[in-house]
Design a protein that fits this description.
It is a single chain. The chain is about 30% helix and about 25% strand. By secondary structure, the chain is α+β, with helices and mostly antiparallel strands. It has a single domain, classed as Alpha-Beta Plaits, CATH 3.30.70.20. The strands form two sheets. The chain has a two-stranded antiparallel sheet. Strands 2-3 form a two-stranded antiparallel ribbon. A hairpin with a 2-residue loop joins β2 and β3.
């Protein structure tokens, strides 16, 4: 499973990093995916981070 952050939508709030720090980090005020594809053991937390993004900037395929 691959995750992406829409850099135009991201507000850098860090909610994703708080939910799944193994996959997301905030650099220079914008969230980034640190590992793709996301390992199975982190996918549930990464989806929770996607669901919790206040601006809907995270997606997966």
């Amino acid at each position: 499973m691959y995750f992406a952050v829409d850099q135009e939508l991201c507000i850098g709030c860090g909610a994703c990093m708080g939910t799944c720090p193994e996959v997301f980090e905030v650099l220079d005020g914008i969230s980034n995916v640190t590992i793709n594809p996301v390992p199975v053991e982190y996918q549930e937390d990464a989806i929770s981070a996607e669901d919790g993004c206040p601006v809907g900037a995270i997606s997966h395929e």
